[in-house]
Amino acid sequence: MEYVTILKPGLLTTVQDLGRRDYRIYGVSISGVMDPLSFRLGNILVGNNENAAAIEVTMMGPTLKFESKTAFSITGGDLSPKLNGNRIDMWKVIFVEAGDELSFGKHVSGCRSYIAIAGGINVPEVMGSRSTFTRGNYGGYKGRALKRDDKLNVNIPDFDINQLQGRRLRAKDIPVFDKERPIRFTAGPHTDRFEEKSVELFSTSTYRLSNASDRMGYRLDGEQLTHKEGADIISDFIAPGTIQVPGNGFPIIHMADCGTSGGYTKIGVIITSDLPYVAQKKPGDTINFQVCDIQEAQNEFRKIEKTIYDIELNNKLLIRN
Fold it and tell me: Which end of the chain is more exposed for a tag (fewer CB within 10 A), N or C?
């Protein structure tokens, strides 16, 4: 077993994977990474299964020391990663020796980076996942964000990491987080519970993430929406991407740590392929919504899955032990 040592923890640094999807019927939050696209690409780059546990970095990155020779990648938002004080490229495989230190600098774009290490982080599974759910104090590393002097075990890869030499993503496959783009959503299921003018306002206005935003939900400031007969409904299903509008008329986007049911009207659901771009926004950033139909949402989903599938084919060429 290899490990890395946390020298400085950063603002909110946690161990995450793709979450606990099989336990939602029991009311358990999915949790897991906020930006699944960057996380999956990072794991694939270093030869891992796309669900291998990795480190999620939020806005202010940690400083960590590698205790043995290994390979890793940095994907997601650009928080100026550095190796031994020198800026390094993202979206490629980086090799390190024992004693090398990874740190982060100023924010450039996005707000979440992923550190995927060859072999994956080794923490116990809780309900089928290694993701950290800090609100419940379970999963990941001791159910909490990483702290100074924590030591994270890393699995030894089942292949010679030298096979990863020269790996990097093509520019056209790298998500762009430093440009504004509309966030697409499918309307409903409670669109008819809003005044018609409010439905139009939602799609044409600019909203801003408030400071009361976290991994559970993003609260939005902007045009206040009006319900016809109140915001309350009989509680029903919610998922990451659900846009709920409580009685005060200001939308809330449910994110990775959201619950599984809610009792407020929902004006729409953000499509899966656009959720990573929402996850990379930070308080103060703006969002413009654009309605789309189910067909467009499914087409975008297929397009991204096809790209990931094609990139992942490279891992089938690795000679494993």
Answer: C
Q: How many CA atoms lie within 13 A of 30 on its CB side?
A: 20
The bridge status of strand 261-270 relative to strand 183-187 is antiparallel
E-strand spans in the chain? Answer: 2-8, 12-16, 54-58, 63-66, 70-78, 81-83, 86-87, 94-96, 101-104, 109-117, 151-154, 183-187, 206-209, 217-221, 232-237, 242-245, 252-254, 261-270, 286-291
**98-134 core/surface letters (b: 16 or more CB in 10 A; e: else):** eebbbbbeeeeebbbbbbbbbbbbbbeebeebbbbbb
Taking residues 278-297, report their average pLDDT: 97
Q: Please tell me whether the overall predicted TM-score, pTM, comes out greater than 0.85 for this model.
A: yes
